[in-house]
## 1
Amino acid sequence: MSQRTRNVILFVGISILIFLLFYFRNIVAYILIAGVLSLIGRPIMKGIQRIPFWKKHLGKIPSALITLLLMLAATIGFLAALIPLVAMEIKDLSAINITSVMDYLDVAFAHLSDKMPHFISYSGADSGMQDYIQGQLANMMNFGQVTDLFSSVAGTLGNLFLMFFSVSFILFFFLKEELLFSHIILVFVPLRYEEKARHVMTSINHLLKRYFIGIIFEVLGVMTLDTIGFSIIGLGFNHGLVVAVFAGVMNVIPYIGPWIGGAFGILVAIATHLGDSFPDVTLPLILLVLLVVIIVQVIDNVVFQPVIYSNSVKAHPLEIFLVILMAGSFAGIAGMILAIPVYTVLRVIAREFLSQFRLVRELTSNMMDD
């Protein structure tokens, strides 16, 4: 067989593979989600296996099953506690008259213009900045969109159940057989590269496991600190908890996520204090919300993120920052969320297969001791 024929066969094979991956992208997504969850659940499973039951240690099947049940129970319990609060929050906010909010903002901007004339110029309805901000708040407070979203989700419960069942089923086997996910990937690797590919998979597994576990602790830490902070400043426990959960989830988006959560907190502060004086009650509350966001962000930057974004993936903070910016410009928020895991995978592959290039050696030098 000539080299040209081999190249043609290789090209056709890769094209068919890409088509199949795209065509069955939902199944691929289930496998990837289960793979990530298995990284998080494996330390739990190993801890269960170390516990003696009737002087014996559990095997892989029962320990994998118990781990899966614990993860499902934690997820269901969290959602069961959160969903009623979110539903109550949506009900309260959706009952607010948008016109009242706009009138309140008119008064607020007039007050700020009087107090800070050099920074804020307000001329009633003619203010372009005023119209823009009011328009953005009106869009944010259009909870009819949220209702439509929930209706759409309710209409696809069958697909959600299929995803839930599929991911759980795949996850059980990934937990039971630690190398199963690696074996699925290695099927597509040529035999002459199999040894290097195994080393790559081991390194990726180790780095991403630390990263995703770190992300979970970061989200929970931000949620806890925000809940405490918002409750202390007088936002109210229920309102504060819902805002804190939203802020914690948004915190997964590096750098800009916390400010999205802070903007939502300010919106809730305004919407729930329309009957109060803006300069005496609402403005101080807004400033306190910003103070809580800043304090939590400082703690996150000093304590949480150095461990997660630097130590866990063995990359310099500036390097991570630039990668996130590039990913965000290429694929928006989704790109920013996926930037670090994808970059970690690419660095490991480059270290193993392209180490002859100086740039690759410099970018992966911190990974050599891993």
Note: The radius of gyration is 25 Å.
## 2
Amino acid sequence: MTRHHPDSLSLMEYSAGNLSEPHALCIKLHLDKCSHCRSRVDTLDSLGAVMMEQQPKVTVSESMFDNILSKIDSEPSVEPAAPAVPRVSALQKLLGEDLNSLPWKRQLGDVSVLDITDRFPGQKEQVVLQKLAAGGKAPAHTHRGEETTIVLQGAFADQKGVFNQWDFVVLTDEDEHKPVAVGCEDCITLSVLSAPVKLTGTFTRMLNPFIR
């Protein structure tokens, strides 16, 4: 069960088609596994269709979307039945193979990476898969910009809590953390970065000039 979700603004931007392809992919992967957020997006899609039909008669207040979404949140969500025919996920379409058999490159300590930015031509953000070995620790770091991450496999923990498979998290330059992979399998995440991370450890900070 997912516990960490995209915020209301991100879902609104996704529904409106205003997100970059990498950011939209992160939310789509989350929506594929989270009925709660799917319900919110379905409502936003319906609302957007009504507004398009009735323009310019509909006046949208700043609190309109939050009020609608809060009503959805107050209703019990029902998990849909599993589809009878397996679907090829957006991630499988993008990568075409199993996550663990990708050509990973060891970056630092327990962390391996695979930069897939070139699969999103014309995008400004860096798109990278990161693998943290089971029980391993990532170097302490902060962010020079915004980082959007979704957990694809396993789980990690930091000072904000535990993030399991399909959980969604956004970090900024105000966040500093040192993720630890929890459980018995490697933790694999997909991240979209507007700027490179900044290592903050006593020794690892010397490597910052070499980080893309």
Note: The two ends are 34 Å apart (CA to CA).
